Amino acid sequence: MLAGVNPKKESIVYSANCLCGGVRFQILCELEPIQVCHCSQCRKAQGGAFATNTPVKESAFQLDSGAELLRSFEASAGKQRVFCSECGSPIYSKTNAVPGVLRIRAGLINEPVSVRLAAHCYTGSKASWWSINDNLPQFEGAYAPRKTKA
Ligand SMILES: [Zn+2]
Ligand SMILES: [Zn+2]
Questions:
Q1: In this structure, which ligand is nearest to the CA of 85?
Q2: What pTM was computed for the model?
Q3: Residue range 14-125 in CATH 3.30.70.1290
Q4: CA-CA to 126 of 20 to 30 Å: which in 7, 27, 43, 52?
Q5: Distance CA 17, CA 66 (A)
Q6: Near ion ligand 2, which residues have CB within 5 Å?
Q7: pLDDT tens per residue across span 100-117
């Protein structure tokens, strides 16, 4: 072994930014499959039919600029929705229920990603005008992935 050489040479880094470019960050890990959230809060926060979120460990989130632009809104107790105060782009959400994890808004990522969608969640509050036309798992409430066997 070569001393001082990081064995993970091909480190995975994604870059991302908000619409105005003031908030820039990197994700220093491979992404988890993206969750499509149809809950009413996500719909309103995005102004769209759903949000596309990927959970990233806080330790893999590197904010490069725009800390002063970040504001957060607590739509439900214990859950912060963080956005850019300049352009309004949603950046991530963070809940006390899952400490240390940021749910990054995947649309901010600049590079093509290898992961695909995981599932639709909160389909119980889906926009009436949106049809789900894929075969992904659907959850009426929160995303609850099946535990894989050990
Ligand atoms: Zn911005
Ligand atoms: Zn949601």
A1: 1
A2: 0.88
A3: no
A4: 27
A5: 10
A6: 37, 39, 42
A7: 999 999 999 999 999 999
